[in-house]
Amino acid sequence: MVADIFRDATVGQLFNYFSNGTILPYPEERSDFTVPARFLPSQTPTIIADESDDVQKPEPESQKSKEEVLVTETETSREITLDENEGLGDLEAQKINDDPYLVTWYGVDDPENPKNWSSKKRAFVGFCVTWMTFTSYVGSAIYIAAIPGIMEQFHVGLTYAELGLTLYVFAYGLGPMFLSPLQELPKLGRNTIYMCSMALFIIFQIPTFVAPNFQTILAFRFFTGFFCSPALATGGASMGDMYPVSELAMLLALWAEGVNAGPIVGPIIGGFAAQAKGWKWPFYELIWLSSFSFVFLMLCLPETYEPTILHRRARRLRKLTGNQQLTSQGERDAKEQHLGLVFKDALLKPIILATEPVVLFCNIFIGLVYAIFYLWYEAFPLVFTGIYHFNLGESGLPFLGFLVNSILGFFIYIAYLKYHFQPRMMKAMAAGKPSSPETLLELGLIASITIPLSLFWFGFTSRASIHWIVPIIGASFYLFGIFFNFQSVLIYISSAYPAYAASVLASNALFRSTAASVFPLFGRFFFQNLGLGGGSGLLAGISIVLMPVYYALIRWGHILRRRSKYASG
């Protein structure tokens, strides 16, 4: 397992490529590999389904390709029988018999197929993807600790200084619109984009702590946010490459822990560093963390995208056999696509789908929930520094309340799936009445109650006469709302628009990141003018107003989907 992981990771791929396959070889590059007869060059490869079919005669011995020496004597016939496809699913075997030069898995238990990897290997790769996502998200909130020092050194106001957070968050919502389509190209795959973008993410961090002026910091905060975005946008897709749909919800919940932990841990590690060493040290910590992650992932993160894995297999087989007709399905599909059209579709489709009533409400609701989450970065200093007199390092510790409830929420969600949702789905399918996608929203609606509860609790208990632990506990309940709603809404829109899942998720990411990037700019003045109680009460009221609309979507969402030309009926 370890050797395969290293071989399929980026560094292993480079060793294999420059050694011409002698270092870390694939099966097709080993001397004992037997080429399936159907892959050898032939003018008219013959397909035999059974003895009653008409059979074409094999070509004369003199016309045989020299590569046939690689085939054992029992396989020298160019005829392709169903026995050759033993171990494949019926549909896969039929595709091969219809097109013998189509390169696919060697069988249903092909070890190169990510869905066939051992549970330990998939768990390790899942950890790598989650760690990569965590590293990217830390970069947003770690900046908070640097703001006081930046204001002092560059003589800028609070709102202007907070643009460093705003631009990063906006950029990682914008980046997937341009970078995610590249991951769908078989020649590139997920890892090429992950590693190239992470390298640029690290490089563009350097100017943030050597910048001669604040404008340079802002420019490169945007670029770092842009190039960290692939992990945030398609980390879940990497998990989907390895696990069946029946297990995916649980694995996405685990991946979401990396999403939640990043913005929570960032202010904690950044705060103590900035207090002890100055405002540049949070940036030092970020580049140390991301550099370690880059080296670790270069060595240990294998490619998981099926079209890319099969594209590389087809390339090795063409080299081995000399048969240039051997291609994977992904290669054939890519030939029909122009890169410009791919980007046009990736940029326009999310905007078009955002006008769908179902998608529009989901974007507004998740955008509000996510934007309020980033308002905590403005409210916490007012409360814990202004009222309770925490120092810069201590002011990040209240975020630990979020982390505790994020972990607790994960276990509640797993129990909900295992003991309620999945049995309910199986019972409905057994009765021949599969549940609608709207059932996925029920948990999110229930959890939405914790959003106004948390806001009221925090806003009206943040006072010197009440112990500081009380508003921390109140604020921590917000994580239940954001965690369960993210899981419910994002899986729902993917299920409601299965043919356009990537586009609706990109639309949601752009919308929520834009909202979250704007709210911190007025957050401090919002709470100062309305008061902590008044400001929190207003946000809680908006959340309550949206809850009946949420219920209406559960109740009548199927009608909206039937009227849509994009959604599933």
TrEMBL record:
* Region Disordered, annotated ranges: 46-78
**Which superkingdom, per the lineage?**
Eukaryota
Q: Any idea where this protein resides?
A: Membrane
Q: Which residues form the Major facilitator superfamily (MFS) profile domain?
A: 125-558
- The reply to whether Transmembrane helix figures as a keyword in the UniProt entry is yes
A Pfam family matched in the record = MFS_1
Transmembrane residue ranges: 123-146, 158-179, 191-211, 217-237, 249-274, 286-305, 358-377, 397-419, 440-460, 466-484, 489-511, 531-553
The UniProt regions of compositional bias labelled Basic and acidic residues, in chain numbering, are 54-78
Major place of residence: membrane
Report keywords, A-Z: Membrane, Transmembrane, Transmembrane helix
| Protein's membrane topology | Multi-pass membrane protein
Q: What is this protein called?
A: Major facilitator superfamily domain-containing protein
Organism encoding this protein? Lentinula lateritia
